[in-house]
Every structure is written in C-alpha cells, then in structure tokens.
Amino acid sequence: MKKILYILHYPPPVHGAAIVGKYIMESALINNNFNGRYINLGTSRSVDEIGKGGIIKWLRYFNVLFNTFLECIRFSPNLVYLTLTANGAGFYKDALVALIAKCLGCKVVYHFHNKGVINNQNKWFDNLLYKLVLKKAQVILLSPYLYYDIKKYVSKSDVHYCANGIPKLPIGLNENKESSTIEILFLSNLLKAKGVYILLEACSLLKNKNIDIKCTVIGGEGDISVVDFENKIIELKLTDVVYYAGKQYGDDKLVFFEKADIFVHPTYNDCFPLVLLEAMQFGLPIVSTIEGAIPEIVESQKNGFLVPKKEALAFANEIEKLVLNPDLRSTMSQSAKLKYNSKFTTGAFEDRLCKILKNIT
C-alpha cells in the first residue's frame, strides 16, 4: 500500500480548508487505499487566533517543521500532500514546509483551497519562492476556472481538478414553501469582501420597487462590526426588510436554510465557497458573482444567476427575477439539488481525490 504524508488543516478552527481536511482524515475510501499519516498544518486553534502572532503559534509552527522533517525520514512517504496557502504570510510558512519535504527527496502534491499567486508573482521574493516550491510539483485545483492563478509556474499536464463536496444532511427538505414574502438568505461572516454592503444596497433597490422580500443575514463579525452593520441597515431604512441573526450552527443554521427561498452570495473575493453547496442541497436558487470557481458551482440560468462583482443593481435585478417567477424558482431548485447530488457530495469528492492520488503515486 502506498504511503502518503498528509500535511493539512483540520478543525479547530472551522474554515473551508479545515473542513475538507477533516473529510479526508475521516474518509474510509481514502484511508483504505493509502497508508496515511497526518500533520496539522494550522497554527491557530480558534477563529480569534487567526491572523495574530504570539509565542504559542511560533512553537506550533516549529512543531510542524520538526514533524515534517521527522516523518519524511521515518515514514518515507511515496507522496507528501500539502494544502499550500497561495500567498501572504501563510504562503511563506507553508513554503518552508514544502521545501523541507522536497529537499528530503519526497514527491509533493499541493492542494490549493485558495488563490492569489497571480497577485504576488511579480514580487521578486515571492516569485523566487513560487519557482522553488512549484518546480516539478503536482497541483490539485478546485476547478479549471482557477488555473490562471498558477499558470506561470505549473503546466497544465501537472494539474488535477477536484471539486469539493459536503455531506448529505439526514433531514427532510421543505419542498413546498408557501409564502407571499420571499425569504432571502445570506450566510457568511460580516466581511466587506463577501459583499455584505452590496447586498444591503440591492435590498434597498428592491424595497424602493415594492418587491416583497425578507433578508436574513447570518454570520459573525469580520471587518464589519455588528454595530456598523446594523447602523447601515438603519441608514438604508431596511429595518423591516433585513434581519441579522448572528452566528448560527448545526441544526439552528439548518432551520434558516429550510425557511429560505433564495440564497445570495455577492462576494468579490472567494475561491470555492462551501456554503453554496449547502444552499444547493436545500434546493435554493443562488444569486452570486463571477468570482473564483463559483461558475463551477452555479450555472447561470440553470441553478441560479451570476453577476459581475460589486454591482448592486445587477444583483437586485436577478433577485427580482426569482422573486416574481415562482416557476423559475422551482425549476432552478430542482437543478440545484440534482447538481449537488451528482457532483458535490463528500462521496463524489472522495472518489475524485482518491483517483488523483492513485495517479500521482
């Protein structure tokens, strides 16, 4: 049995790459096909620690480096699987891990869960590191839509594509939503880059046209505080339209999905948002943006609409189409569920990843 050393993120804290890492660790298919060992690449143990320094985080990082060195020698893996951060401080940290594995003669595959190489490739130091790290390496991307980000350093023949998947939920879906008011759901942290303010502008435009909607916003504070967000709601006179529900988890979160008619994600900085897969599982038509691998998830005119980033009017127009056309919502709802079940389950993800790892090793 081939041996793989997995150096990846897993919870805590909970974020996209960590969730996928957890699926890999718990996958019977993957673990029955390979002799695997795992190293936690993360140095944060809570959301509050992300982006902050400290002695404890440095000690955790040195522990990652030491364990990588030790396992590459002791375990002698056929492949080192590393969830490489694309840019910034995270890339610098991960690059050293990668270079240790490469210097010890290990074959390496990088699984990108984010993007941003192209934004830093013209900086001389970053360019040098990208060349060293990505030379003669295999790369797994979430979608062909993301190849542009690494094409300077990696040929297409060395790239593999593996869309993420999420577990099926053992609950009944609400097939017949009967309400005169259409429920819109947004679920992400309060971040400007997730388009929260664009959403509020779109809601204001819809209210001014007397379009009957209710919009629920779920998520914790990011670079937008709850106070600032609620003040913006008041400023735009949306207190009767937009409801902020704070953080929601588990069954509490699922209740909001079941009540919703439309899911919105006006992001302008994303890669492969798992929350869209959750929405599809509930059969929600999606209005989102042309960003990252989102066109892989949302096929415009089929299971939702895609609009240019930061365009509140275009976003509002697509929401309006869905609000005023129940037959269109129903058709897109069925398409969303079919696409999720055929492509975006954890089983489908595990099959894809297992085949890729077999091909590489």
TrEMBL record:
Highest taxon of the lineage: Bacteria
Keyword Secreted in annotation: no
Keyword Transferase (UniProt): yes
Domain called Glycosyl transferase family: residue spans: 177-337
Keyword tags: Transferase
InterPro entries cross-referenced by the UniProt entry: Glyco_trans_1 (IPR001296)
Pfam families per record: Glycos_transf_1
GO MF assignments: glycosyltransferase activity
Protein name in the entry: Glycosyltransferase involved in cell wall bisynthesis
Organism: Arenibacter nanhaiticus
